[in-house]
Amino acid sequence: MSSKDAVLEGAGRWLLYSGIQEANGGVARYYRSDLRKNARVSTEITGYTVSALVFLGERTGQSAYFDAAFRAARFLTRTAWDVKLQTFPFEHGIDQPAELIYFFDSGIIVRGLLSAWRASKEAEFFDVAAAAGRAMLADFRTRDAIHPILTLPDKRPSAYEPRWSASPGCYQLKSALAWYELFEACGEMEFLRAYEQTLESALSTEGDFLPGDTNQEKVMDRLHAYLYFLEGLAPVIGRADCANIFQRGLDRVAKHLRAIEPIFIRSDVYSQLLRARLYGCGLGSLPIDVPAATHEASQVGTFQLESDDLRVGGGFGFGRKGTAALPFVNPVSTAFAIQALALWNDRENDLPQAPWHALI
After folding, report:
1. What's CA 94's distance to the chain center, in Å?
2. Given a cut of 70, is residue 281 above it in pLDDT?
3. Which of 68, 85, 104, 130 is the 20 to 30 A CA-CA neighbour of 254?
4. 3-class SS at 253?
5. Are 270 and 294 in contact (CB under 8 A)?
């Protein structure tokens, strides 16, 4: 087994057997290695994990990944989905009723369900994804902006806050991919119009997103969010205006990343930047900075954890402050890392690139 295969197998084993996915199919936001306990189950993280498990299943042919993916998808459709309110409330398993819903989370969940539907052809997955997509149109979208957070049960917009996830912004384009994918699946033009509206807004505002703060650690968090914007350009990266902004965005992220990484680094930023470079090259025929991509690939691998503890070994850590690793073994960090490394391996071996719909 090559070292690259070992990385993939170790990460896949962690996703399957660490306990990060609970018996009901839901996936915890992270595992706290210092406290030796999972955080609460998260609907958003479950959506990401569905996409990751389908990617692994398609890549390896191993049925265990598909089984886990469909179990997670059924948790979303049968447990997390609120039929009465037609939404996915934020988090799951909290004693008191959920009070919030997030646009971003909703889009990630819809994309996860669509990945499960494409792999299984189970109508249940598509039906709930389409219903959630229509609810996103009705609940979050206005002529001027997409509200990031709504209160429940009235679905009123929460007051905007300075943190990026509580304000409208270009990062929302990643979740708007759910509308584009629904349009492709069912042909409803309103889904396409919603994506295009989000795209137009994102293109007009992305220049102000970075650095966005004087605190370097918060800038690192914003790099993560800005890369969501670049990922959201995947269907239109062949357009000249989008390609130019995409290439300039890669350069901006890399510049900030290099400046901040000695202080604080998130593993997902390395992974997202590498994935973006690869998709930019494959989808938009953009030149790829091979030395930079090689550096990023080497750095991604440093976050995989070695341990005899099944709850840790094979997973990827969230990040480091200075040289100190943070105690979060993170399913999304793991998913982004294994996909970035798998795509990098494909490029090195002249293999076809995975379609953009596979982007976790």
Report:
1. 23
2. yes
3. 104
4. helix
5. no
